[in-house]
Every structure is written in structure tokens, then in C-alpha cells.
Amino acid sequence: MKKAAFLSKITVSIMLLLLLAANLAAGAPTESEKHSYLVGLTPGASSKALEAPGIQLKDKWDNLGAVHISATAAAIKGLENNPNVSYIEEDRPVFASSTGTSYSDGALTWGLQAVNAEQAWTRNATGVNIKVCVLDTGIDYGHPEFTRNGETIIKGSKNFVSDGHPDAADGDSHGTHVAGTIAGQTSNSGSKIGAAPGVDLYVARVLGDDGSGTTSGVINGLNWCQENKANVANLSLGSDKPSRTEQKAFDLAYQNGMLSIAASGNDGGRIGYPANYSSVVAVGAVDSSLSLAGFSNYGKNQELVAPGVGTLSSVPEGSGMLTSTKEIENGVETSYRSGGIEFSALGDATGPLIDCGLADSITSCSSKPESGSWIAFINRGSNTFAEKVQNAIAQGAAAAIIANNDTANPDDPGSFTLGSAGSWIPAVSVSYNSGNSIRSGALGIGIVNVSPWDYNYFEGTSMATPHVSAVAALAWSVNPQLTNEQIRQVLQTTAQDLGTAGLDNLYGYGLVQADAAAQMAGEL
Questions:
Q1: Sequence-ordered list of residues with C-beta below 8 angstroms from that of 32, at least 6 positions apart, any chain
Q2: Which terminus of the chain, N or C, has fewer Cβ atoms within 10 Å?
Q3: Which of 318-327, 394-403, 409-418, 492-501 has the lowest mean pLDDT?
């Protein structure tokens, strides 16, 4: 997701990984070209033993017995024969783990309701005196969700991405969304979004404005979190392959008392990294029916699950998308829950709804009026959303409504994109059930509005992870003397069992429960 406009990070991550694979397959770096590597040192060896032409030391991690270097292909060949080197690995890319839009109603988001956050608050479990470090794309410092009693809850921040940012300001929206789920303070969105409003936030910007980063950045961020004595580290990010250096960093952080919680991943396959390390809590995503989300990764190291579909939270101010979709038929106005389609134009339109079918041609809206504003009503399927809307524009539509065809989640408007910025019209999506309701009578007058917002609905294991981090903080605040291992055991023991009875590969121990975790922590 830009995620504020519902960019599919799943799609982007896969594309970036494919591009990376293609680049690696094309050949090693040229003699003059430097690439980034992580190098393990043999016991007792010094980083000085690596000094050679073509090598630049970037980071030295004495606690890990490893360094981060930039080196040419020739220099790497030399290191392969250096007796002071135990291993050499790529400074692999990591990516945010989330995508688009969905739904929420009520005083609390459905996610906070599902984990029983409010019941924990009544036990005076709010996360007070607990430090949560968010390693992500940064944060919107000025967002009202991060001000408590007139003071910021962001107690420290640092940028670990070499892209010219002077601080950890969020140019993507992913990090602000994750942080809001953990510690949001207000109900300005219409729902309370923060599960642990008493915590102090620390922000390590380890992902850039495109939602990607490097292993070295994550390690530097993790070390900084430890320096600030964070209790919990939230990592809504990952890679599909492990790193020996990164694993040592997370193992050491766990030994030092910090609890790291990470997203399992969003391609429906094996759990990614760092979630798959034994020292890290792996989190999968469930939808509002408490079924494992179709995109969620899973496996034997799945430890917990949490709400990760249709998660409402904060994004940098004005970068979100608020939609309103209505139909007037026989004088009766009906409102439908809708989602903004990424890259949709802002604005509003009113006019007759015209059935355009799949909008797979420039003649598909055959009953359109000869003049005046009208709205294309389109079925999902066959062609891309961009093609559908382009065909509607070519026929003169002022706005577009696309009805989802997901019968497994019939009330979900979906998470859709137009692919890239362009001269689009306001475009929204509605659920399968809403689409059927609109079709049930003669199509009436449609009203579509797309306006800027300080919030957005995202989905992904990225969104599930901060729910677990928040619940850990709530339980820990009840009994700060507990160790990270004890808090981890509390989360496991008090989780709501889902799927096959007991620990399983899909849900792990189950859905985190804030009230039960807080109660158990207080009794230890």
C-alpha cells in the first residue's frame, strides 16, 4: 500500500523478490560494483582482518560477531578464503507485510473487540510503563493518535534507511498504521483503534517509502530498540529466507529480555523471517469470522493469530481514503459499506447507476444516458480493475462502483488497486452481498464520494502483529516483574483455541485474548 491509497504490498513484495532473483541470476557484481553483505567472524577475530581493497565497513556488531560491509565481487572472493571469516551472506531485502481495505463499525474496531481489549482495560491493563519499539516505515509524528494528555507518546525515534530522511517520518503509511493499532489514543476515526493506549512508543525506521529495507537496517534497528530498553519489538515485515546474522541478533535480543513479535507473511505459504526464528513470536492473520485469512502464511512455528483483515488504523494525515456509497431507489436512500480502490481520484458523483457487466469493452455500458452524469456499476472478474475503469471512463462515466465476487467473505468490499496513478475517476468497491442488494431492484440513482482521511483499512499479517504486541504490553503492564519468556507463555496459555484442538500449524495456540492474558499475568 502507496498503502495510504491501498497499494498491494503482497504484489509489490513478490515483484521485488522476482526482480532481485533476476538480478542475482544475471551475474555477480562487476569488479567496480559494490554490493551489501553480512559477514560472520570466527571467534576472537577482529573486523580489521577484513581490511582489503574493494571492502568498505558499514556496521560492526561486536555482540553478534559479525559486520556489515559493502564489497566488490573480487573482494568477496578474497574473503571466502580468509580464515577469520565464518560465513558470508547477502544483506537480503525485507518487506512490509500488508495490503488494502475493508470494514469496521462501532466504538472499537472489530480487531479490538476480538482480542477483548476493553475488558483488559477494565483490569487497569493499558500498557503503562511498557516500551514498545516499532520497526517499520516510520511514523507521522503529528498525528493526533500519538498525543496523550498534550504530550507525544513517541519517546524515541531513529532512521536506519539511507535515503536522505532526516528522521523517522513515515513516507509510506505502513508504520503509522501499525503504531496506531498498538497505541492509538483517540476515536477520531469513529472507532477506538489502539489496543494498548498506555504504552510508550519507540520508532525505528528500517523500511523506506517503498516499504522495503535490508537485513542490516533491521539489525541496527533491533539493537537500537534494546539500547532504549524496549520490552516489545513489533516487526510487521519479513523476508522469505533466513539470515544467520539476523537470527543471532534476535536470539541475543531474546536472551537480553526483549520479546520480538513478527508477521508470518502474506503469500499463503511458509512462515517468513524473522517470524520463523524460535526466539521470535510468529503471528498469522484471521478475518472477522476467526478463520485464517487466505493470504496468511502458516506452518509448524505459527505461534499465535490475531485480526488482520479490514483493520482500521491511522495513516499520515490526509493520506487515507474515506468513501461513501449510496443508492436512491423509489425515494428510499440506502447506504452501502464500501472501500476505496487504490489510486482512485478524490471527488464525488451523483447519477443513474448503469449496469456495465464486467466492463470488458468500451461498449459494455450500453444503457448509459446520452448526456449528464452517470455511475458505472461493474462486476469483479475477467479483466483488471484498471481495464474496467478505463473502459467506463471511455464511455463517459463520472464514477465507478465495482462489486466484489468473494462468496467466502460476502460482506467484504475487498482490497483492490488500479495499478498506478493516472487520470482516474472516483472508484469504490462494495461487497458481494451489497452488489446483490443493489442488483435486486431496478438500478436507481447512485451517490459516490471519495475524500481524504487520516485513517485507512489495511489487511495483512502486518496488521495482526501489532494486535499481539499490544496484548503482550497489556499483560506485562499488570506485572512488570515477569520475564519475556513468562509473557510469551501467558499469551500462549490464554489464547482462544481455533481450528484443530490444541497447537496446530494454522492458528498456533490460537487468537490472543487481552483480558485473559492480563488476568493470568496478575496472578503469577
A1: 72
A2: C
A3: 409-418
**Closest C-alpha to 155, from 124, 193, 199, 192:** 199
Query: Model-level pTM?
Result: 0.85
CA distance 402 to 398: 14
Residue 151: enclosing H or E segment and its boundaries? strand 151-152
Residue closest to 214 by CA, chosen among 248, 249, 238, 232: 238
Rounded to whole angstroms, the Cα distance separating 160 from 108 reads 34
Burial class (CB in 10 A: 0-12, 13-18, 19+), 523: exposed
- Domains of the chain by range and CATH? 3-92 (3.30.70.80), 95-315+459-523 (3.40.50.200), 320-453 (3.50.30.30)
CA distance 318 to 173: 11
Q: Give the C-alpha separation, 252 to 160, whole Å.
A: 20
CB contact set of 396 (below 8 Å; sequence gap of 6+): 368, 374
pLDDT range class, residue 111, cuts 50, 70, 90 = very high
pLDDT tens-digit map of 5-49 = 223 333 333 333 333 333 333 334 444 688 889 998 999 899 888
Per the CB < 8 A criterion, the answer to whether 388 and 308 are in contact is no
